[in-house]
Design brief:
Layout: H1 2-7, H2 9-12, E1 19-23, E2 29-31, E3 35-42, H3 49-52, E4 54-61, E5 69-78, E6 83-87, E7 96-109, H4 113-116, E8 121-125, E9 129-132, H5 140-146, H6 155-161, H7 165-188, H8 199-211
Parallel strand pairs: 2-9
Antiparallel strand pairs: 1-3, 3-6, 4-5, 4-7, 7-8, 7-9
Helix pairs in contact: 6-7
Signal peptide: 1-17
Domain Yeast cell wall synthesis Kre9/Knh1-like N-terminal: 23-108
Keywords: Signal
Length: 221
């Protein structure tokens, strides 16, 4: 599945949008585990926020426009609200300037002919920003996509392991849980979806996430 997704990344990178994300922007830092408000405005006349309507919001990670990998779905929002409150789970990734947010319309099809022929939805995206306070570690796919070194979050557990086997078990369990979470997010990009969407709607959102492995700056999305 991901082979076809990455093959279409070049096409996706040409996507233009009239929903322009103004927060976060390049240079911004977001603290994992703390509430944050994503904001956007309507620009241009081709597409309105009302046209975009109900949308899914996703978190991606990567080093540049060609390497973005979906991490998780953050929730849903109506584009006309011009903001979305979220708290990014610290366990889904590690510290660094690798992250972007993407807004994928549930109703509006992409306005680009090369995207519309695949029935991809309208997508907007943010600049790449930094996340701090993260406690997770990237799997191999994400390490390659971001160019990051694997975070060492086991310092405390390692020292505890010398004194207590329970601490060792907890440390291993936490690591396994985090790796499984990252692997799952890398493959599906839609863990954490607790909405009552139809399978067709979820499949469409899935396709959108992968198909839009686009650029970082002016993330229109």
């Amino acid at each position: 599945m991901f082979e076809s997704i990455f093959a279409l990344s070049a096409i996706a990178s040409t996507t233009l949008a009239r929903l322009s994300i103004t927060q976060p922007i390049s240079g911004d830092t977001i603290e994992g585990g703390e509430e944050y408000t994503v904001e956007w405005v309507e620009r241009g006349e081709d597409v309105t926020l009302s046209d975009i309507g109900q949308s899914h919001v996703y978190l991606y990670a990567g080093n540049d426009s060609d390497s973005m990998v979906p991490l998780t779905q953050l929730g849903t929002v109506d584009a006309t609200e011009k903001e979305f409150n979220t708290t990014i789970d610290p366990e889904i990734g590690q510290n660094g300037t690798y992250y972007t947010i993407r807004v994928v319309s549930d109703n509006l099809q992409s306005q680009k002919p090369e995207m519309a022929q695949y029935d991809y939805p309208y997508i907007a995206y943010s600049d790449i920003f930094e996340l701090t306070g993260m406690t997770g570690t990237f799997n191999e796919t994400l390490l390659n996509a971001t160019g990051a070194e694997k975070a060492n979050n086991d310092g405390d557990s390692d020292s505890d392991n010398e004194d207590d086997s329970d601490s060792d078990n907890n440390g291993e369990s936490g690591g396994d849980k985090n790796n499984n979470n990252n692997n799952s997010n890398g493959d599906n990009g839609d863990n954490g979806d607790e909405d009552d969407d139809s399978s067709a709607s979820k499949s469409k959102a899935f396709a959108a996430m992968g198909a839009t492995i686009l650029g970082a700056a002016v993330y229109l999305l």
